[in-house]
Design goal:
710 residues; five-stranded antiparallel sheet; 26 helices; elongated
């Protein structure tokens, strides 16, 4: 402890006693702690040593010595060996000095020990009382804190705005607060008669109770779910429920604590928003989103079968434009009501947007059964609609599709049904059409080609083949017809019948025609530079849409100037149907070109039923007889008297008008001989030549003529 340092200082017997006493107590210092410094301890022992020496006189009372022992104990020298070591030092010191008789020394040491023990006992009792008082005070403080905490918790439990309840592991409700009880229309004490399972609701998710049982087993400490409770008045209260597990000190489940928040208003708002998000605001029918969800759900089972009826009102735009949108809206409302009434249970009727509706028919795998539904819906439009005093006869067109969900997506099926509905419109409206996979594939391919055409024009995927046209008299090549091809990167080489009509429909015919015309004229210029007068006339097909374009005439004239082709070496072909619609400016454009020396031909003559009187007013040079007339004389056994009479009449009429007659699709020698006998001028077909690229035309010309300069 350090307070033994310096023993031996001072003088006289008391100094020697102090030093011995200090040394003895220092040796046992590990058994006790003295709350004083080393100097203070030496001063104490010095004072006690002197006091003991004075008390050793025979005339001194022993009470003084007892007080010295008591002072040593009160100074907290209370280790296990303090008293024994002190008595040993005192006894040895006075025995060696011989100044105190043995009997007197024994009395003094006994008195010292008694004083020490009494003081030590008093100190020990005081310490025990102090500890007991502190323990009582601490226990009282803890009790007060627990009481205050319990009061606070009780106040929170009973007065909290959020519902709170406590139940045991058997599901018995032990306690609920007023908020929870009032939420369900009860008093708290009434709910103590219930169990947790009495609070089930038809809207409960079965998984909810599985979670609750798992919580009781201690597999979860907390579960949060959305739960419906039945109010005492029969209404439904929607809540956000948080259930916590309370365990005992050994971790075993003991209670469940629930916190219940009333979210009925929020739930009702969510339901309204969900309804508005999934229903058409005008008709009240499920909207496109809800229908797609239902169709997607049907796809969850790949073996499921169902049908679709895609419905579109005929001429609805005319109703809006004629009577106004208010009448149009009312028409949609009444139409939706008729469809809804005629739908059978399980069939979903939805509005897709505009005047389009769709019906999902579950558990059908044939188009016949779905077509029955479609006919039922068409019958719904048999009676006129009475709207604001107007009696409107409105029909509908329906696309019908049925099958399984294993090979197509929901979007693909819906698109197919939509496409089929347009087939019904194209067939005359007021009817249904049944989906045809082959036709659908063709339609899909046409759509893809239409989308790819602009890029094809830029990437130079289009090229020309030429089919020679020969004179029937000597079968000499006098002209070639330019036939455009499309080298599609995926579909291979496509014939003009597969994409020219598409170009007209999507507005690309102008760019396509210009590209074909320029390439044909450049090829003709190349041939003319080598073969001069032996160069064949190049014939290029032109659509009515091109001729109707105000810029077409300028474009043709520019190509002729840029390529250097002689105008009389160029022939433009228009179909008979195209000529029937060529009046005004387009007809004048043809006349302008004809006056410049360009040859004009009418293609597929005999298929358009044109006015023969009008034929004489056209700026024509060539009439190309349509293939069906030629196929009638394929063999000696095939032609009838009427067919020959018609052919003979056409030849005579053509020549009478001053035109040259060209026969198309000549495939047999009999056809060629018969046409020559009738007086037909030229012909083309596989009998003579198949379409060929420009370099083969060059080879053919080189084999039948002498190049220029030789």
């Amino acid at each position: 402890m350090g307070w033994e340092a310096g023993h031996g200082s001072g003088d006289g017997p008391s100094a020697d006693l102090t030093a011995r006493w200090t040394a003895a107590l220092s040796a046992g210092a590990r058994d006790h702690v003295v709350p004083m410094s080393a100097a203070e301890a030496r001063m104490l022992l010095t004072r006690l040593a002197r006091g003991f020496e004075k008390a050793a006189d025979p005339g001194e009372p022993t009470d003084r010595v007892a007080e010295l022992g008591a002072e040593l104990a009160r100074s907290h020298f209370v280790g296990d060996e303090v008293l024994g070591r002190s008595l040993a030092v005192l006894s040895a010191h006075f025995t060696a000095a011989g100044t105190v008789a043995a009997e007197r020394l024994a009395q003094l040491l006994g008195a010292f020990a008694n004083g020490y023990v009494r003081a030590f006992r008093a100190w020990l009792l005081a310490e025990q009382d102090s500890v007991r008082a502190a323990e009582i005070a601490a226990r009282r403080a803890v009790t007060e804190q627990l009481r205050a905490s319990d009061a606070r918790l009780r106040a929170v439990f009973t007065q909290a705005g959020i519902g709170t309840g406590l139940s045991d592991m058997s599901g018995r409700i032990l306690e609920v607060n007023t908020a929870f009880a009032s939420m369900l229309g009860y008093q708290p004490e009434q709910m103590y008669e219930l169990e947790v399972t009495d609070l089930t609701h038809p809207e409960d998710d079965p998984n909810m109770w599985d979670l609750y049982l798992a919580l009781l087993r201690g597999e979860h400490d907390n579960v949060q779910v959305e739960k419906a409770y039945r109010h005492r008045d029969g209404s439904t209260v929607w809540t956000n429920l948080n259930v916590s597990l309370i365990r005992d000190e050994y971790g075993r489940p003991q209670y469940t604590l629930v916190l219940v928040e009333d979210i009925s208003e929020w739930h009702a708002l969510r339901e309204r928003l969900h309804y508005r998000a999934h229903h058409d605001q005008l008709t009240g029918l499920p909207n496109r989103t809800k229908f797609i969800d239902a169709l997607t759900a049907a796809f969850a089972d790949p073996s499921a079968t169902f049908g679709l009826c895609y419905i579109d009102l005929d001429h609805f735009k005319l109703v809006n434009d004629t009577f106004g949108h208010a009448v149009g809206d009312e028409l949609l409302i009444q139409a939706a009501a008729r469809l809804r009434v005629r739908a059978r249970p399980g069939q979903l009727v939805a509005r897709m947007g505009g005047d389009e509706f769709v019906i999902l028919v579950p558990q059908v795998n044939t188009c016949d059964r779905t077509a029955e539904v479609a006919q039922t819906m068409l019958d719904a439009f048999a009676d006129p609609f009475d709207i604001q005093g107007h009696h409107l006869n409105v029909s509908a067109s329906v696309g019908v599709l049925a099958g399984r969900a294993d090979h197509r997506s929901a979007d693909e099926l819906l698109q197919a049904a939509d496409t089929t509905m347009y087939w019904a419109k194209a067939a005359g409206r007021g009817r249904y059409a049944v989906f045809d996979a082959d036709r659908g594939r063709r339609e899909h391919t046409r759509a893809e080609l239409s989308a790819a055409m602009p890029a094809a024009l830029v990437r130079d995927e289009l090229f020309l083949d030429y089919q020679p046209i020969v004179a029937l008299a000597d079968q000499r090549m006098v002209a070639v017809e330019a036939l455009v091809r499309w080298r599609h990167p995926e579909l291979g080489v496509l014939a003009p019948a597969q994409f020219v009509d598409l170009a007209e429909d999507n507005g690309h015919i102008g760019a396509l025609g210009a590209q074909v015309l320029e390439r044909a004229c450049r090829d003709s210029s190349d041939w003319h530079s080598r073969f001069r007068e032996h160069t064949p006339i190049v014939s290029v097909n032109v659509s009515a849409a091109e001729v109707a374009d105000p810029t077409w005439l300028d474009r043709v004239q520019r190509v002729i100037a840029e390529t250097g082709i002689a105008p009389d070496r160029l022939q433009l072909e228009l179909t008979e149907r195209a000529f029937m619609h060529t009046t005004g400016r387009p007809l004048q454009a043809l006349r302008t070109l004809a006056e410049a020396g360009i040859r004009i031909a009418i293609d597929d003559f005999g298929t358009g039923y044109s006015n023969l009187a009008y034929l004489g007013q056209l700026p024509l040079d060539v009439v190309k007889l349509a293939g069906p007339f030629i196929r009638c004389i394929r063999t000696p056994e095939s032609p009838g008297a009427t067919d020959l009479l018609v052919l003979e009449s056409i030849v005579e009429l053509t020549h009478a008008l001053g035109y040259t007659l060209t026969a198309e699709c000549v495939e047999t020698r009999y056809q060629a001989d018969r046409l020559a006998a009738l007086g037909c001028d030229t012909a083309q077909g596989w009998l003579f030549h198949r379409p060929m690229p420009a370099h083969q035309v060059t080879d053919l010309l080189a084999a039948t003529s002498v190049p220029a300069g030789e």
